[in-house]
Target: Extracellular solute-binding protein
Amino acid sequence: MKSNKRKITFMLAICSLLLFLTACGGGGTGDNNSAAPGPTGNADNLSGVVKFAVFSYPVDDGIDPVTGNNVKGMKTMLQPFLDKHPKLTVEYIEVPQDNRKAKFQSLLLSGSVDVLILDSAIDFYNQGFLMPLDDYLKRDNWKNNYFDSLWLDKERFTNATDGKVMAIPGIVNTNTVMYDKQIFDDWGVAPLSDKPTALEILEKASKLTGINPKTGKQTYGMYYDPRSSSHMMLDYFSDGNGVQIGETDWANFGNSKLNFNTPQIKKSLQTLIDMNSSLPPGYEIGRGFENWGKAENNVAICLWCSKTDEILKNKLQDRYVLTKGVRDNNGKTSYGTAQTYTIAKDTKNPEAAWQVLKYITGAEGQKTIYDNYKSLPSWKNADWVDEKDNPYAKQLLAVVADTKNVLFPPIMFSLVRPWMAELISRANHGQKYDLTTEMADIQEKINKWVEEQKIIDASKNKK
Model:
C-alpha cells in the first residue's frame, strides 16, 4: 500500500510540473507581431471593457460643421451593438486632429487602448503595436465583404513585409477627376472620356483656357492644389507609367532604395510647370477654385476631386460630371482607399475588441455612418446607398473598386511635396528655377534621410 501511495504521489507531482512548464512556455520567437492573441474568445458572451480611440468622428451627438445637420456620435452609433452585449463596456477616447499621431503613439505605448481609427497602419504595425487580423478574418469568413482592391493598400491594410492584414477598412476615401460640362459645351470641346488619359486632359485644358465664347468671361482649363496633391500629379502625368521612385522597405526604411532624380520624374515636373497657363491665378496657394460647384464656376476640370456637397446643394449634378480617374497604361486609375480600423496588439480583451471593430466596419455600422454623414462604404454589398442622396455614389465606388494605390515614403510628404509646391509657385511667378540642380539636391537629402533611418531601424530592432 505504501508503495502504491508513493507511486500516485510521484505521478501527481510529475503532472503538476508538466502543467507548470506548459503554462510558462509561451515565449517563443518570431516577428514583432507573432505573439498576438488568436481568436479564442466567445463572441456571444462578451464582457469587460474595450477602450476605443475615436478619430474623425465626435464621441457624442452633435451638429456636423459642414452640413449643419444633427449627427450621431460614436457612442450612439455603437449602442445597438452594446445593447446585445450588456456585460460589455466601451470607453471612448476622443483623439483631436492636431498632433494625433503622437496621441496614438502614447496610447499604444502605455497599453491603454484596444481599438483605434488611424490615418494609416504601417508605422505602428512595424513597431509591433498592432495585432494581425488574419486569423479573425478567416474564422469569421469576413475579408471578402470589402472591395478587393483595398487589400492592395500596403500602407493601411496589408503589410508588405509579412503579408498579414494590419487593419479593416471603414468608409472609403477617394479622389478623381471631375469636369464642368457647361464649359466644354460653351467652347465646343468634346467631353472627357470616362477614363481619360493625362494627354487628353492636357490637350482639352489648353483649349478651355481663355475668354469663353458664349459668356465673354475668362475660363481656366483645370485646377489642383500643389500643396496637398502635387505628389499625385507626378503619378498622373507620367506618360501612363505611374510615378517610379524606387523601392521602399516599409519595415526598415533604412533599407529603402529611393531614386527621385530620374529623367521621367524630371519630365513630369516640367509638365506640372508648363501646365501653369491652364490654371487660375493663385492656384498654388489654393485660390481660383472658389466657384466650383456653383453656376458661376469658371474652371473646366478638377484634377483631384471628391467633395460634391456644393454641387448637390445647388442641384447642378447634370452639369458637373465625374470620371473614373486618369487612366494609366494598364487601364488602372487612382485614387481609392478607406478609413483604417485597427486593434492594439496588447489588448486585454481581444475577442471583444474584434467584435467592436467588426460591427463598426460591418454592414450595420457603415450604414449608420452613411445615414448620418453620407460617407460611402467599403462594404461591397451596400444596398443602402441611395443615388437620391448622392448621384455620384456609384461612380465614386467604381473608382475604389478599380483603383491602384500609389504608396509614397514619408520623406515625400515632409520634404519632396513641399519643395514641389514651392518650385511650382516660383515658376508660376516667373522666378528662376533649375530642375537639374534642385533635383540633385533633393536626392542628396533623400539619401541622407535613408541613412538616418538605418540608425532608427537598428535601435528599433534591438527592442
Notes: Residues 435-462 form the longest helix (28 residues).
